Automatic annotation (TrEMBL):
Residues that hold Zn(2+) according to the record: C174
Ligand binding (substrate): R122, N160
Record-level GO BP terms: galactose metabolic process
Residue ranges constituting the Glycoside hydrolase family 42 N-terminal domain according to the UniProt record: 27-399
Keyword Ribonucleoprotein: no
The Beta-galactosidase trimerisation domain, residue ranges: 439-534
Highest taxon of the lineage: Bacteria
Annotated organism of origin: Allosediminivita pacifica
Transmembrane stretches, start-end: none
Swiss-Prot/TrEMBL catalytic activity: Hydrolysis of terminal non-reducing beta-D-galactose residues in beta-D-galactosides
Protein name (database record): Beta-galactosidase
Enzyme class, spelled out: hydrolase
CDD domains: A4_beta-galactosidase_middle_domain
Length: 712
């Protein structure tokens, strides 16, 4: 395997290795050694080339302090290699052993209520702890030096799903480290007080030793700047914890690739050293878990959304854990993929940016907190339909890997994403409004349903590959992003900037000018004179969770929900439909036209969607939040006239189409049936299905959860 230096972060960045990694996370420590050789044989027969091991085995690698035991994994690695299976090792720092936390309880996390984490599960220790970092470096160095010259170890995963169980800590150690971080960031306490608004609600500090962690509701709300900096600190601490390990691994063997597998994506700044320290990122993909947790609109769409979000951080990625079957922990369980669906979900991951994929897991555990989290094999060690689908997927990859590696996912419509500060800025003062991602999801889902190539992209990226860009309510904005957007629009791009964008400084202060700030308003030629509340379905007059009552009056009688909530309509062309969440009253420059207006109440006739020609393109401003009706009208009225359309026309409902493109312009279309029913799709004649080599006519039948891949 060859590794090259990784390219700069970008939504279009390919991986810097020349091999598609395919296999499973494997836990040889969970079974008797008599299983091992048969395991490796069946992996090879399935077409696997790699496994991932060791992420939860610190207690095995180091049974007591200073005594390292590599024997179990040495033998497992050698046995896999005899069948052509290479190993990716993991630093085991997500599960520090009991002897370590007993000796150093100061490493343990503390929650906002003052409860110290008990030992066990995982991520029970605080990554900001200097003691944990010291021991993390020690175990990483011992493992790296032991495997430095082992040709069967090809790369490393740092830790495991950092910050997934929890990212926060209120331990004394964390507070000390937070004070140090604040001192380094601000230099003087006066600058910190200025950033956090110390003259409001008696929050002024006299010195850095007084700085506290932002305990929620203790007794009231904390400064948005204080909360923002706490989460910046957590992201910094996470990156520093990982960097300790990366520096050791790179110094020991520069030929190893190094990545991390992300789970819940909390308190990680992907556009910083966390990602630039690595060769590439990995994202663990559990489509049915996402949909059950967040109700995005179906397992297929939930997966597509998650993959597109992840790709926006750093470009192509690997999937170190891809769902293979029923998933369960004691208090949850997911739906089970139906026959063919496991393979389809894996192909969706590849279609949307995966350049490596491992099915979780080789076999289910017989003990512990995931005994019903199924693997490729069943509990009785027998390969059944999941093994067959994994084997078929490996065959699929063998058929297309020459076209696949080095390609990136096509995006015609980009949605601004991947910015840590804007994610956290919203959380510091949400007011019940949708987050930027929640708003963006409405447009993304409408584009997905029409098979229009879309995804998430950071405004600092090269935008020249896009035809349109939507900015979903980014509170914080930078002048250099404005410059990049101006070049994009003047070059022929279509821009839509949305309400509340460019309204706060990096310290979470409101700008002392009419929004949008940082030059952004100069592109669409608008300023926001006033803004206010618009009722959304299921909400009352306050931004609180939907409810029928606002509490209880004398004698326990329920108080009625607010009856003064106001709804507004939008007139767009010949149609009128409901707005939601927020209105803005706009001031327009002379060269700006109104494409849609408010339809009623005191705003009747005022612009809500504007357009301004700029160079070869157009800059738009949307003075409200996205709804499903509005999203589809934007597609019809703005995107389609600009030449933005479906990747394949006439596709039946449930057919998902995605394109991957090589730098030389070669294109590959993934046409995936996300339903259980056979579907016939129209095609241009003369196409060949790259998965099977079959020639296709003017239509093709795709079985339930089936797929074809076309060279476009």
């Amino acid at each position: 395997m060859k590794k090259t230096p990784p390219a700069p972060l970008s939504a279009w960045r390919p991986l810097n290795i020349d091999k598609f990694l395919i296999g499973v996370p494997h836990y040889p420590e969970h079974v008797d050694e008599t299983y091992w050789d048969h395991d490796a044989q069946r992996m090879a027969e399935a077409g696997f080339n790699s496994v991932r091991m060791g992420e939860f085995a610190w207690h095995i690698w180091e049974p007591y302090q200073g005594h390292f035991d590599f024997d179990l994994f040495d033998r497992a690695i050698e046995g896999l290699a005899r069948h052509g299976i290479k190993t990716i090792l993991c630093t085991p720092t997500a599960t520090p052993p009991r002897w370590l936390t007993q000796a150093h309880p100061e490493m343990l996390r503390v929650d906002a209520n003052g409860r110290t984490a008990s030992h066990g599960s995982r991520q029970h220790c605080d990554t900001s702890s200097p003691v944990l970092r010291d021991h993390s470096r020690r175990i990483t160095r011992a493992m790296a030096e032991h495997y430095a010259n082992n040709p069967n170890v090809i790369g490393w995963q740092t830790d495991n799903e950092l910050n997934t169980t929890t990212s926060i800590s209120f331990s004394p150690s964390c507070e000390i480290e937070f004070r140090k971080w604040c001192h380094l960031r601000y230099g003087t306490i006066d600058k910190l007080n200025g950033a956090w608004g110390g003259d409001f609600w008696a929050t002024h500090y006299d010195n850095f030793d007084q700085v506290l962690l932002p305990y929620p509701n203790n007794p009231g709300h904390i400064s948005p700047g204080h909360r923002q900096d706490y989460h910046r600190f957590l992201a910094h601490a996470t990156a520093a914890f990982q960097r300790d390990q990366v520096e050791i691994l790179r110094a020991t063997n520069p030929d190893w690739f190094v990545f991390h597998n992300l789970g819940q994506l909390e308190d990680i700044d992907f556009r910083s050293e966390f990602s630039t320290d690595l060769d590439f990122l990995g994202f663990d993909i559990y489509p049915m878990l996402y949909d059950e947790m967040r109700r995005h609109g179906g397992h297929a769409y939930s997966q597509a959304l998650h993959l597109d979000i992840c790709r926006g951080f750093t470009g192509n990625f690997i999937v170190p854990e891809q769902a293979s079957g029923f998933g369960s922990q004691p208090l949850l369980s997911t739906m089970t993929p139906e026959p063919g669906e496991m393979r389809r979900m894996a192909l969706t991951s590849v279609a949307r940016g995966a350049d490596g994929l491992m099915f979780f897991r080789w076999r289910p555990a017989h003990f512990g907190a995931e005994i019903y989290w199924m693997g490729v094999l069943d509990h009785d060690d027998q390969p059944r339909r999941r093994y067959a689908e994994a084997k078929q997927f490996a065959s699929d990859i063998a058929s297309i890997k020459s076209d696949l590696l080095g390609s990136s996912v096509r995006m015609d419509v980009g949605i601004a994403g991947s910015d840590f500060d804007n994610q956290e800025a919203y959380r510091t003062y949400p007011m019940g409004l949708p987050s930027p991602l929640e708003d963006a999801t409405v447009l993304h889902r409408a584009l997905y349903k029409r098979n229009i190539a879309t995804g998430f992209v950071h405004p600092e990226d090269d935008l020249s590959r896009l035809k349109a860009l939507y900015v979903p309510h980014w509170l914080m904005w930078e002048q250099e992003w404005t410059d990049n957007l101006r070049a994009f629009v003047e070059g022929g791009g279509l821009l839509i900037a949305s309400a509340m964008t460019g309204t706060r400084t990096r310290d979470n202060h409101i700008l002392r000018e009419l929004a949008p700030g940082m030059g952004l308003g100069d592109l669409p030629g608008v300023r926001v004179e006033e803004f206010g509340r618009v009722i959304a379905p299921g909400q009352d007059g306050l931004f609180l969770p939907p409810q029928k009552t606002m509490g209880f009056g004398p004698g326990g009688a329920p108080l009625p929900a607010c009856s003064t909530a106001r709804s507004y309509g939008i007139r767009f062309g010949n149609e009128t439909f409901a707005a939601a969440h927020l209105y803005e009253k706009l001031i327009l420059q002379d060269d700006v036209e109104a494409l849609a207006t408010w339809a009623d109440r005191w705003l009747e006739g005022e612009a809500v969607l504007t357009r301004r020609a700029l160079g070869k393109g157009c800059s738009h401003y949307l003075g409200t939040y996205m709804t499903e009706d509005l999203a589809h009208r934007l597609i019809d009225q703005l995107f389609v006239p600009a030449g933005i359309s479906s990747l394949l026309h006439g596709m039946p409902e449930g057919i998902e189409v995605t394109e991957r493109t090589q730098e030389d312009g070669k294109r590959m279309l993934f046409v995936l049936n996300t339903t259980e029913r056979p579907v016939t799709v129209p095609l241009e004649g003369g196409k060949i299905d790259l998965l099977t080599g079959a020639s296709l006519g003017t239509e093709a039948r795709i079985e339930g959860y089936g797929a074809i891949v076309l060279r476009a």
